[in-house]
Amino acid sequence: MQEEHRKAIQNNFISLVEQTDLEVMVAALYEKGVFSEQMKEVYEDTNKDARNRKRLLYRDITRRGPQAFGHLLDALRENGYWDFVRDLDPNSSLHLRRSRNPAPGTSKSSGDSNFVSIRTEKKKTKSGSDVNKNLTTAPTPPAPPDTKDAVDPTEIPRFEVKKSQKFVEDNNGGIALYRTRGRQRGLLVVFSYIEFDGIEPHRSGADVDCKNLKYLFTEMGFKVLVYQDLTKEETLETLHGLKEAVVGVECLFIVVSSHGHARAASSDNDFRCRKGGLVSLSYVLERFNNRNLPALRGVPKVFVFQLCRGSNQDYLTLPASARMDGAEGGGVGGARTAADGQPCPSTPPPERLLPQPLERDLQDRIYSDILIAHSTIPGNVSYRDEAEGSWYISALCEVFAAAAHERHVEELFTLVDQRLHAARRVQTSSVDRWGFNRRLYLHPGLYDPDE
Q: Is 259 part of the annotated catalytic residue set?
């Protein structure tokens, strides 16, 4: 198979798995000779999870010779998957078509258990033009550059995202919930910096973090945007451009992954962009406060910073007898272990005087509904496995995949730190809450059609 065709399948891999009918595609591809009778039996084995069988199907297609891609397009076209034909083949004559005809047998996603797929149900609701008239379309976000984060079917994350089977309800008198039941569940925006033009070391393994995050949040029903290796100017431009794109989402996740540097005489940190520019974390947070983005007042905003916050690498050395039950070892010193930054003195921002409010003005706080998760504590390094990705993001993906269906986000981050400690021992994560006063459940795979 040509490299461009293989990449086209990689770029659409998750959507193909989620939105196509396994039985229909197996029959069509077998008929065209892509798979033999013996190979077909693997995809028809009902003792195995249907979603995993579909993953295997689309992974194997990339290995079935130069004609397999054309046969895949024909199978998709014959069964009404017009959008996929357009997405996979830019030269397709189907680019003039606008709507996807539902494929036979796709009224109920094959292999789905007792959950409702946001993606599948959303496709159903768009089958009629009358429904579309009642839906609010979010503004188009800045287009990511040609990122290298496409999910390679040979490297699909091995964790399975458990789906919610029911909504968590508000309990009278307790802590209220953020509302997360609609189709626009959320948006994940990832700023990942791997190459620095020789100014700082290449961040091997950071690409694995991108793949894992994209897979996790797509499975949970989020829209995902990944921006990789932007310069400082491009980063600032993108942050400003997101201002309109995030309106209407029920929750927002922002992930920044780079080399980090502690600011002198300040609790703030900078992260490195391509070509050497530095951007402060406080600047990122400020872009999404209630003054600069009032449309997101009351909307939960979760920031995850995977970067060093200093150069401290201290840790305790305990005797073997003091080892805690359940500890898996880990720690630093491995050949693949790297840190994401070092201290970099910089000038703290000048003090800013706020205008005095008029007596008749109603005063309110600038920051609210913000949760900030750091991969490490102030002054310390953050570790990364050069083959498996950063310690923290790896733990985050594992925990969210296993427990987001029944735990709220603050509990999830507590479990992330527990997992980080159990697996790696020496790194401590931290979480700050800025007016984040409700419980946030992500309800992966579930939505209320009336929302």
A: yes
